[in-house]
């Protein structure tokens, strides 16, 4: 990787911090971010962002990170992706998914296979939960040829906000060469799977969510199976809560997901498990309606792996691009000088699956 010789890229603002750090690490280009929440009463990096920077520092070797006193300017000179066996305590203000999403981008390119234990909040209402990443991102990595028994995400303990207390294990083998993909036909939905989990509340909550989600989904197809996952004792974390995550799988191996979680203890009104189950089923139908071969949480991961593959053409069909993905494409252009050719599908072609 290029050291100090590479052109330093400069950005402003606190948005898309993870994208920038990940792409800087993969491309070996130093990075400077100014004006991080400079105008706010509490300026600078938040605890979860500082925690993310510490995580990047752990998985790399020889990174230089300089932050000014107020935390409003960050200079980052990437080192080598090293990997190995690690542990990291994530900040409870964001879920483990916030950190795991970026690790999924970096893990295949390490020097040694990554095996990391992350502790914190496993399911919340903001970031993709560990369940969803396990169900959607891992099959996506396999499509690019990153597989083997050492690719896994294992949930040892669940942790709900605000206190967390969850623990997961993420392991990923090293693959320097990725296969190009042609992934343009999503195919029809053949089955729906899911997990309804409850911690430190009555186990009946999970069953009630399953009932209500099935009442919506069974109108469309019979093969709906939702597991209930009630964790007890130490493996249930420190805060009560419940939630549901649903996965739709098509005949061509496209996996689309949706999830919802209850409000954290002491924040907002209590949610009925019936409503949660129903709303999550509707969210899944919404995700299916948008189409595409990769669901909206993993769009940027797919595009990144396409960028870093061999000099061969990869094609993927996406639903409507999320604002995060659009910004990601701009960043790919800045860091790697890679442009994607984007073709719009006409509505006639598009609506045949729905």
Automatic annotation (TrEMBL):
Keyword Protease: no
InterPro entries, alphabetized: RNA3'-term_phos_cycl_insert, RNA3'_phos_cyclase_dom, RNA3'_phos_cyclase_dom_sf, RNA3'_term_phos_cyc, RNA3'_term_phos_cyc_type_2, RNA3'_term_phos_cycl-like_CS, RNA3'P_cycl/enolpyr_Trfase_a/b, RPTC_insert
Entry-linked Gene3D superfamilies: RNA 3'-terminal phosphate cyclase domain (3.65.10.20), RNA 3'-terminal phosphate cyclase, insert domain (3.30.360.20)
Pfam family for this entry, one: RTC
Residues in the signal sequence: none
Cited SUPFAM superfamilies: EPT/RTPC-like
Keyword DNA repair: no
GO CC, alphabetical: nucleolus
Segments crossing the lipid bilayer: none
Compartment(s): Nucleus, Nucleolus
Organism superkingdom: Eukaryota
Domain RNA 3'-terminal phosphate cyclase: 11-342
GO molecular function: catalytic activity
Assigned keywords, A-Z: Nucleus, Ribosome biogenesis
GO biological process, one term: RNA processing
Annotated RNA 3'-terminal phosphate cyclase insert domain residues: 184-288
Protein function: As part of the small subunit (SSU) processome, it plays a role in 40S-ribosomal-subunit biogenesis in the early pre-rRNA processing steps at sites A0, A1 and A2 that are required for proper maturation of the 18S RNA. Activates BMS1 by promoting GDP/GTP exchange. Does not have cyclase activity.
Record's subunit section: Part of the small subunit (SSU) processome, composed of more than 70 proteins and the RNA chaperone small nucleolar RNA (snoRNA) U3. Interacts with BMS1.
Similarity-based family: Belongs to the RNA 3'-terminal cyclase family. Type 2 subfamily.
NCBIfam families, per database record: 18S_RNA_Rcl1p
The protein's name: RNA 3'-terminal phosphate cyclase-like protein
